[in-house]
Design a protein that fits this description.
Layout (H helix, E strand, L loop, with lengths): L14 H9 L5 H5 L3 H8 L3 H13 L8 H9 L3 E2 L4 H6 L4 E2 L2 E7 L5 H11 L12 E6 L6 H10 L4 H6 L1 E5 L3 H17 L2 E7 L3 H6 L6 H21 L3 E6 L1 E3 L9 E3 L2 H7 L2 E7 L4 E8 L8 E7 L2 E4 L5
Parallel strand pairs: 3-7, 3-10, 4-5, 4-6, 6-7
Antiparallel strand pairs: 1-2, 8-9, 10-11, 11-12, 12-13
Helix pairs in contact: 3-4, 10-12, 12-13
Bound molecules: adenosine-5'-diphosphate and magnesium ion (MG).
Length: 319
């Protein structure tokens, strides 16, 4: 299904337009064939007529619209898995964290979301036999809770070279929701140039929640969030990488029984993510993970883990 035709081979695309399209995050004909016209106009600074023509040309060279289930199966077979470093969590996730998908960890403050993200960004660097993909991480930090010293500690206590480990994590501090969109646009360029197999957004919704307050702004917020998640999924599919997002909780006043919390972000987030995992604090240092939504993983199974100097570890059975 690989397309041999490059952007610059399209009729009407000269070197200068090709470079504008690259700068806007478009590197192949497939991504142009699926590009929204307004996005091309705004980001690449080309006219609407030119954008329409380019998309039309790109579609002529793209045959991805109709594929058989067998083709899809072949694509899914290329899917890789990143270990979470803990057997019970790997079992919960059907073997590990999937590429070509968005996995969401949601839970209250201090439930371990950022710790899992940091730990994963070290595991992905390991060779396949150790559960990694020999690859880098792009870590998008919206809350300022990314701690290089914690990564240093985890790397060192696992016998890894801390400086090398830190050098393989590309860090982007994100200041507002527009900036977050921009970083994800830039991610297409970064992932094209660097061997990134894990993209973390910790947390995905913080900025939208604080910027779009009130019912009157809800639909705009949800629309933008939807667009953001679509881009993240496209990133995961185009580069066969894993996207992890974290999410906060929102209390559910209608819940008389069961969990009084639910993930923030409503339907947009529930439809936009592939697998959702709820994290909660149990006793002292014990954490519990449960699948709350997934097209392929069984719900309601639980996995226990603890947070230690070494990162995330199997919970020790009670003696
Ligand atoms: N070096 C460490 N050793 C043991 N526990 C740690 C260590 N660093 C952080 N933690 C634990 O991780 C918790 C924070 O988890 P974090 O992933 O930041 O939560 P959040 O879900 O809010 O992102 C702290 O409350 C602490 O219990
Ligand atoms: Mg956090």
């Amino acid at each position: 299904m690989e397309n041999e035709v490059g952007i610059e081979d399209l009729a009407g695309v000269g070197p200068s337009t090709a470079s504008k399209l690259n700068d806007a995050g478009y590197y192949n004909v497939q991504s142009l064939a699926a590009a929204p016209i307004t996005e091309l106009v705004n980001k690449a600074g080309i006219t609407q007529a030119a954008a329409l023509k380019i998309v039309e040309e790109a579609r002529k060279h793209t045959s991805i619209d109709l594929i058989t289930a067998k083709d899809l199966w072949e694509k899914r077979k290329q899917m890789d898995k990143i270990s979470l470093g803990v057997d019970s969590l790997n079992q919960l996730l059907g073997g590990g964290l999937e590429t070509q998908a968005i996995t969401e960890f949601w839970g209250e403050y201090a439930s371990g979301k950022s710790q899992i993200c940091m730990y994963l960004s070290i595991i992905v660097q390991q060779p396949k036999e150790k559960g990694g993909l020999d690859a880098k991480t792009l870590f998008i930090d919206t809350e300022g809770t990314f701690h290089p010293q914690r990564l240093y500690q985890i790397a060192e206590s696992n016998g890894l070279n801390p400086e090398e480990t830190l050098a393989n994590i590309i860090y982007a501090r994100c200041y507002n929701s527009d900036h977050q969109q921009l970083i994800v646009d830039t991610a297409f360029k970064i992932c094209h140039e660097e061997n990134v197999k894990l993209v973390v957004v910790d947390s995905v919704i913080t900025h939208w929640r604080s910027e779009y307050v009130g019912r009157e702004n809800l639909s705009e917020r949800q629309q933008k969030l939807n667009n953001h998640l679509h881009k993240l999924l496209r990133l995961a599919e185009v580069f066969n990488l894993a996207v992890v997002v974290t999410n906060q909780v929102q209390s559910n006043p209608q819940a008389f029984f069961g969990n009084p919390n639910r993930p923030a972000g409503g339907n947009v987030l529930s439809h936009g993510t592939t697998h959702r995992i709820y994290l909660r604090k149990s006793s002292k240092n014990l954490r519990v993970a449960t699948i709350t939504d997934s097209p392929s993983l069984p719900p309601d199974k639980e996995a226990l883990f603890t947070i230690t100097e070494k990162g995330i570890e199997e919970a020790q059975p009670k003696t």
